[in-house]
UniProtKB/TrEMBL annotation, chain A:
SUPFAM superfamilies reported in the protein's UniProt record: Adenine nucleotide alpha hydrolases-like
Functional summary from the UniProt entry: The electron transfer flavoprotein serves as a specific electron acceptor for several dehydrogenases, including five acyl-CoA dehydrogenases, glutaryl-CoA and sarcosine dehydrogenase. It transfers the electrons to the main mitochondrial respiratory chain via ETF-ubiquinone oxidoreductase (ETF dehydrogenase).
Protein name, UniProt field: Electron transfer flavoprotein subunit beta
Subcellular location: Mitochondrion matrix
Domain Electron transfer flavoprotein alpha/beta-subunit N-terminal: 26-233
Biological source species: Cyanidium caldarium (Red alga)
This protein's record includes keyword Aminoacyl-tRNA synthetase: no
GO BP terms, alphabetized: amino acid catabolic process; fatty acid beta-oxidation using acyl-CoA dehydrogenase
GO CC terms of this entry: mitochondrial matrix
Listed CDD domains: ETF_beta
Keyword hit for Chaperone: no
Family to which the UniProt record says this protein belongs: Belongs to the ETF beta-subunit/FixA family.
Gene3D superfamilies cross-referenced by the UniProt entry: HUPs
Pfam families: ETF
TrEMBL record, chain B:
Gene Ontology cellular component terms for the protein in this record: mitochondrion
One of the record's GO molecular function terms: FAD binding
Name of the protein: FAD-binding PCMH-type domain-containing protein
Gene3D superfamilies reported in the protein's UniProt record: 3.30.465.10, 3.30.70.2190, 3.30.70.2740, Uridine Diphospho-n-acetylenolpyruvylglucosamine Reductase, domain 2, Vanillyl-alcohol Oxidase, Chain A, domain 4
Domain named FAD-binding PCMH-type: residues: 88-269
Top-rank taxon, per record: Eukaryota
Organism, scientific name: Cyanidium caldarium (Red alga)
Length: 273, 523
C-alpha cells in the first residue's frame, strides 16, 4: 500500500450548545430556526484524519475525502470539513422528506442505510481507512461505524482515544487504536483497511482558518444519489413518540431519621411492618 | 507602611475586626490596598446597638430570615467589605439584605434620620471600588431581591428586581427568543441594579446602544425613604412627559438613590451568529480601517467588534500554557493586533456568505493577515473566553495592576498605550503594558502590570494618563465609573460648572450625604 486514501463521514446535527425543544405533538424535535453544525464527534474524526496525514507525511497519503449522507443543507457541513483541511467532498444527496424525529437530518435514514451508502462509496473510492465519529448527538445510535465495518468485512477500532498508524510494520500497514471501554483503556492493533470511530478525548478539532475557508470554496464536491449507489432507504423501525425526560423532582430535606422513615413508608419504599 | 499605621489608628466599633487584622486574614499585602482614603466624615453617625435593633426590624420579616438579611459576623462581612480586585477594603460592621422595596425604604428613612451612611451593593464586581464601604458605611446588598417580575412578549420588555444576576436574566430572555441588551465578563455575578446604577456597557453596546436608551422604567428609593416609580412595568419605548428622571439615577453609582426594580427593553436574539478572530499586522491604522469597513459592509448584522493587542494575548497564553486551545492564531507570529468580530443576523447562509466575502476581501487587500471562523457555538464561546479572560489573566500576572478605562477619538486610541509604554521605559520602571477594548465604541482598556507592590510606581502613571486623555479630548472613565479610584478625577473630563451642577443635584436628592459617601466627587 503506497498511497493511503482516508474517508471521513460527517453528519449535520443540531448544534451541541443549543437547548433542544420537543415539538408539542411529540412527533419530533423542533428544528425551525435552530443552529445546525457538524456533529462534534465527526469534527474530531476530520481532525484526526488531517493529523494522520501530518504525521505520516503528505507523500504517503493520496487524499482525504469527506463524505456526508443527507439533504442539500449538508453541503454546508462538507464545506466545514473542507475548510478544516479535507481535500474533496462527496455528497450522497437524500431527498428532503418530512423532518426526521431527531431533526438532525431531514431524513429518517437509519444507520443501516447510511452504512450501506458509505460502504458503496468506500468501494468506489478504494478507501483504505474510514474514520467516523463514535455516534451522532441527535440519535446517539452508535451503530454506523460498526455496521460499516461488518459490511466491508474490515476490522474496527471504536471509541478511539488514541490512534497511531504504522506504515512499515511486518504485517503491512496497521493502526494501533486505544479504545475507551467501561473497564478502562483497551489497545488493539488493526490491519488496514479498517474502520475507526472517534471518542471525545482523541483530539481537539482545529478552527477553520480564513485562508482554508477561501480555498475550500474551490474544492470539488461530487454529488451522488441513493439510487446510483443502490442503497435501500426503507426504514426498519418506526418512531412512536418523542418526549422530554421527566422532570426531576426537587429533593426534600428531612429533619431527622424518624421523618426519613415516615416519608419512605409514605412513598411505598419500605415494606409495611 | 505609613498608610497601614494610619488605618489602624482609625477607631473602629468593637464588634468588628480591625482593618489590620482583616488584611492579615485575607493575606493581602498592605501595599495592594488603597493607601489614600479620605478621613471619616464627622457628620456621619456611628452605629449603636439601638440602631442595630431598629434596622433589624426594618429589613427582617421574622427571625427565620434574620440570619440571611442581617449580617454582623466579621468573617461573613469580609466578602461584602472587599472589592473584586481585593484593593479596596471597608470596615463596615453591618450588611443588610432586604427582600422588598418597603424594607429598603424603611431602612433609608431610618438612616437619614440618624445620619447613618449606606453603601448600596449589587454583585460587587465593579473595578473602581464604588461598591464597597470606605469606612463603616452600612452595606445594603440587593442580592436577595433577585426575581424576574414580568415579561412583556409583544415588546420584549423584562422587569426585574435589582438583585437579579445578569446571566440569569439573559438566559430568561433567551427562553423567549430575546437577548438582554448588556453583556460583560462579570455576567455570572453582576446584578441588574448595579449595572443600571453604574451604566455598564460591554460587548453588546455596539449593537444595542447604551442602557440609557433601553431602560424603560425604574423604581428607585431616595435617601429619605421615598419610593419613586419612574414608569416601571409600563414598557413604553417613548414617553416625553416632563424630565426623564431615570437618567439621573442611571450611572449615579448609588449616590442619588437606590435602584430597586428595572424594566429593560430587550431585543430579539439573532438567529444566526458567526464569530471570527482576526490577526492584523502591527499597524493600528489597519485595525481602524477594518473597523470602518466592517461597520459599512456588515452594517446591520455587525454584532460585536473587540480588539486586543499582542501583549495582552501573549500574557493570556502564558497564563493558560497547557490549556487545549489558547490562541488559535498562535502560529502567526506577525500578528500585532487581534480583532474579535461577531455578526448576528437572521439567515445563516446569507450572513455567512456576506461575512466570508468581507473577510476574503480584507485578506486579499492585506488588511487581515490571518483569522479563524468558529464552526459551532462551542468554538464561538471559546473565542469569547479568550477576550473575556484578559482582565482576570492580567490580575493574576503580577502582584499589582493599574487599570485604566478610557474613551478616546479613534486616531489616538492606541497612541495612549504606545506612549504609556515609552514613558515607563524612560522612567526605568519595568512594567507590562497591555490593552484591549471595545473597538467599535472607542473604548480602550489600558492595563499596566507592576512587578512589585510598590505604590511609587503609581506616581509614574497618575495623573499623567489622565492628563494625557484630557489633552486629547477623551474620557478618563468610559464605562467603569468613578467610585473611589477616580474620585477627584472627574475634572479631567467635565467642566467645573458641570461638576457644580452635579453637586447641586446631589445636595437636593441626598441633603445629608448618606448615600455612598466618599465616592464620585464626594471625596
Amino acid at each position: 500500500m503506497n498511497n493511503l486514501r482516508i474517508l471521513v463521514a460527517v453528519k449535520r446535527v443540531i448544534d451541541y450548545a443549543v437547548r433542544v425543544r420537543v415539538k408539542p405533538d411529540g412527533s419530533g424535535v423542533d428544528v425551525a430556526h435552530v443552529k445546525m453544525s457538524m456533529n462534534p464527534f465527526c469534527e474530531i474524526a476530520v481532525e484526526e484524519a488531517i493529523r494522520i496525514r501530518e504525521r505520516l507525511g503528505a507523500d504517503r497519503v493520496r487524499d482525504l475525502v469527506a463524505v456526508t449522507v443527507g439533504p442539500e443543507a449538508n453541503q454546508e457541513t462538507l464545506r466545514t470539513a473542507l475548510a478544516m483541511g479535507m481535500d474533496r467532498g462527496i455528497h450522497v444527496v437524500v431527498p428532503e422528506t418530512a423532518a426526521g424525529v431527531t431533526g438532525g437530518s431531514a431524513t429518517p435514514l437509519e444507520p443501516l442505510a447510511v452504512a450501506q451508502a458509505l460502504q458503496r462509496v468506500a468501494d468506489r473510492e478504494s478507501a483504505q481507512l474510514i474514520v467516523l465519529g463514535k455516534q451522532a448527538i441527535d440519535d446517539d445510535c452508535n451503530q454506523t461505524g460498526q455496521l460499516l465495518a461488518a459490511r466491508l468485512n474490515w476490522p474496527q477500532g471504536t471509541f478511539a482515544s488514541a490512534v497511531a498508524l504504522d506504515w512499515e510494520s511486518p504485517q503491512g500497514a496497521t493502526a494501533t487504536v486505544t479504545r475507551e471501554v467501561d473497564a478502562g483503556l483497551e489497545t488493539v492493533r488493526l490491519r488496514l483497511p479498517c474502520v475507526i470511530t472517534c471518542d471525545l478525548r482523541l483530539n481537539t478539532p482545529r478552527y477553520a482558518t480564513l485562508p482554508n475557508i477561501m480555498k475550500a470554496k474551490k474544492k470539488p464536491i461530487e454529488r451522488l444519489t441513493l439510487q446510483e449507489l443502490e442503497v435501500d432507504p426503507t426504514p426498519r423501525y418506526a418512531w412512536k413518540r418523542v418526549s422530554e425526560p421527566s422532570q426531576r423532582r426537587a429533593g426534600v430535606m428531612v429533619s431527622d431519621v424518624n421523618e426519613l422513615l415516615t416519608r419512605l413508608r409514605a412513598d411505598g419504599c419500605l415494606p409495611e411492618n | 507602611m505609613h498608610a497601614l499605621v494610619n488605618l489602624i489608628r482609625r477607631a473602629t466599633p468593637s464588634n468588628i475586626l480591625s482593618r489590620h487584622t482583616l488584611l492579615r486574614s485575607l493575606s493581602i499585602s498592605s501595599a495592594q490596598t488603597a493607601t489614600w482614603a479620605p478621613e471619616r466624615r464627622t457628620d456621619l453617625s456611628r452605629l449603636t446597638d439601638g440602631d442595630l435593633d431598629a434596622i433589624r426590624q426594618c429589613v427582617c420579616d421574622d427571625t427565620a430570615s434574620s440570619a440571611a438579611a442581617f449580617i454582623t459576623d466579621a468573617h461573613e462581612l469580609q466578602a461584602f467589605n472587599t472589592d473584586w480586585m481585593h484593593r479596596y477594603i471597608g470596615t463596615s460592621p453591618l450588611c443588610v439584605r432586604p427582600q422588598r422595596t418597603e424594607q429598603v425604604a424603611a431602612l433609608l428613612t431610618y438612616c437619614q434620620q440618624r445620619r447613618l451612611a449606606v453603601t448600596p451593593q449589587g454583585g460587587n464586581t465593579g473595578l473602581v471600588g464604588g461598591s464597597v464601604p470606605v469606612h463603616d458605611e452600612i452595606i445594603l446588598s440587593t442580592s436577595r431581591m433577585n426575581r424576574v417580575l414580568h415579561w412583556e412578549p409583544q415588546t420584549g420588555t423584562v422587569t426585574v428586581e435589582a438583585g437579579a444576576v445578569l446571566q440569569a436574566v439573559d438566559a430568561y430572555c433567551g427562553q423567549h427568543g430575546y437577548r438582554f441588551p448588556l453583556d460583560l465578563g462579570a455576567k455570572g455575578s453582576c446584578q441588574i441594579g448595579g449595572n443600571v446604577a453604574t451604566h455598564a456597557s460591554g460587548s453588546r453596546f455596539l449593537r444595542y446602544g447604551s442602557l440609557r436608551g433601553r431602560v424603560t422604567g425604574m423604581e428607585v428609593v431616595l435617601a429619605d425613604g421615598t419610593v419613586l416609580d419612574l414608569g416601571l412595568g409600563r414598557a413604553l419605548r417613548k414617553d416625553n412627559t416632563g424630565y426623564d428622571l431615570k437618567q439621573w439615577f442611571i450611572g449615579s453609582e448609588g449616590t442619588l438613590g437606590v435602584v430597586t426594580k428595572v424594566s429593560v427593553a430587550c431585543a430579539p436574539a439573532p438567529a444566526a451568529v458567526h464569530t471570527a478572530l482576526l490577526g492584523l499586522r502591527r499597524d493600528f491604522n489597519a485595525v481602524l480601517a477594518l473597523s470602518r469597513r466592517a461597520q459599512h459592509q456588515l452594517g446591520e448584522i455587525l454584532y460585536a467588534l473587540e480588539f486586543m493587542d499582542r501583549e495582552a494575548v501573549t500574557l493570556l497564553e502564558r497564563q493558560q500554557s497547557g490549556a487545549s486551545v489558547g490562541n488559535p492564531l498562535a502560529h502567526q507570529p506577525d500578528c500585532g493586533f487581534y480583532v474579535l468580530l461577531e455578526t448576528g443576523g437572521g439567515v445563516a447562509e446569507h450572513d455567512r456568505a456576506r461575512l466570508e466575502s468581507f473577510l476574503g476581501q480584507a485578506m486579499d487587500d492585506g488588511l487581515v493577515l490571518d483569522g479563524v471562523l468558529a464552526q459551532d457555538q462551542s468554538q464561538s464561546e471559546a473565542l469569547w473566553r479568550m477576550r473575556e479572560g484578559l482582565s482576570e489573566a492580567v490580575s493574576r500576572a503580577g502582584p499589582m495592576t493599574f487599570k485604566y478605562d478610557l474613551s478616546l477619538p479613534p486616531s489616538t486610541y492606541y497612541q495612549v498605550v504606545e506612549q504609556t509604554r515609552q514613558r515607563l521605559q524612560t522612567t526605568g520602571d519595568a512594567m507590562q503594558v497591555v490593552s484591549w477594548g471595545h473597538l467599535g465604541d472607542g473604548n480602550v482598556h489600558l492595563n499596566v502590570v507592576a512587578p512589585t507592590c510598590d505604590r511609587r510606581l503609581q506616581a509614574a502613571l497618575e495623573p499623567w494618563v489622565y492628563a494625557w486623555v484630557a489633552r486629547h479630548g477623551g474620557s478618563v472613565s468610559a464605562e467603569h465609573g468613578i467610585g473611589q479610584m477616580k474620585a477627584g478625577c472627574v475634572q479631567y473630563s467635565q467642566s467645573a460648572a458641570a461638576i457644580e451642577k452635579m453637586r447641586a443635584l446631589k445636595r437636593m436628592l441626598d441633603p445629608y450625604g448618606i448615600l455612598n459617601p466618599y465616592k464620585l466627587f464626594d471625596a
